[in-house]
Amino acid sequence: MTENTLDTELAVVILAAGQGTRMKSSLPKVLHRIGGRPLVGHVLDTARDLGPARVVVVVRHERDQVADAVLGVAPEVVVVDQDEIPGTGRAVEVALASLPGFTGDVLVLSGDVPLLDADALTALVREHRAARSAATLLSAQVDDPTGYGRVIRAADGTVARIVEQKDATAEEASVREINAGVYVFRAAELRRQLERVGTANAQGEKYLTDVVALLREEALPVAASVVARVELVLGVNDRVQLAEAARILNARTVRRWQLAGVSVQDPATTWIDVTATLSPDVTVLPNTHILRATFVAEGATVGPDTSLVDCEVGAGATVTRTDATLAVIGEGATVGPFAYLRPGTNLGVRGKIGTFVETKNATIGEASKVPHLSYIGDTTIGRGVNLGAGAITANYDDLAKHRTEIGDEVHSGSHNVFVAPVRIGAGAKTGAGAVIRKDVPPGALALSVAPQRNIDGWVDTNRQGTAAAEAATRARSAENTEHGA
Known about the structure:
It contains ten helices and 36 strands. The chain has 485 residues and is of the alpha/beta class. The chain has a 19-stranded parallel β-sheet that branches. Strands 5-4-1-6-10-7-11 form a seven-stranded mixed β-sheet, sandwiched between helices. Strand 4, helix 2 and strand 5 form a beta-alpha-beta unit. The longest helix has 21 residues. The model has no long low-confidence stretch (mean pLDDT 94).
């Protein structure tokens, strides 16, 4: 089975009906995110990589929210509702009802086990088919099995049954082989046995695990495949396990990009979502987050202390100590340190957004520079522009936002305020401290200055006895002495 090969004899059922009370969250457990996707999104990705004939997702708690999330990333799947009968057995039973006439193998996955990969599941299905088992489950040997169902084996080593934690005797609870909640069943046997499963247990639920014992009662073959890497079957039931799953997934993602030619200086402090894309010869410095659909082109350097969300970074660009969302950074451009790029920022080739600059809905042309201490919002800037320190495009008049347009090769003085809507023509200049309220023609110099006025003795009159008055007195005495000499 490969990503591009359809396995017509395989259907996948994903269980996503639970509330997840231990998460202590209003958000359904399977929608908590790691690596840029909800938990169930990772399971869906893996399921689709197997190329099954059908994928069915069972929902119940906050069903609309979960169903919308599932169909948003995998519109081809079938979403079915679990009824008031609780338990994983009932969930699989309603899923099978959406697969009438299907006689192949049914792979059951949990929506809160996000780290399983297609290779492990492909091996499980192959092992199941090679042994002609009625059911094959995935198990793991762990040091602390608390909270998991135990795999109980017969004297000959074959699987006898699965016992849930709440129903286990002391002897059964000491078993370290756990049920990972991943199964392959022959569809016909699964349908037949689920009809026999009751709810006489500590939780009053219809357990899927009871199918194993029922199959063994009829001497049908059941196998357990022990997974070599325990972290693959790590389930998420609380925030601690969520963080641990996120750490493992991130380490896997970072390593994948390192092997693809990306230099990651400190993997422990670098977070890269599975949805992000990096190119060869990218350098990622410490404390950097590359999130969601961010793309970083070859030779770019990102970090340290940088967060990019849904951004595009061009080849050879440098982004340092920057927070950016939905921004495009052109080839060879430089950003930061301490820059804040809000949605709609588009920095051209070899452009610059410098220290303590905030931008929003701004297009900054090729080789144009906004070096430092500026706010540029709702603005279009042409090519070869240099804005002096402290430039502000005042875009809001208390009622609506307005745009500023700055033509090619404009150079502004320091501490300019451009009061939108306003246009600055190509090649124009503005003086230091100017407040630009009117359009400036191409090639013009715009000034808004008043003559400087000095009021002698103001400090002596209004600030008597202060350190400033004393310093002024000393300075005047020194000047008089110098002039007298």
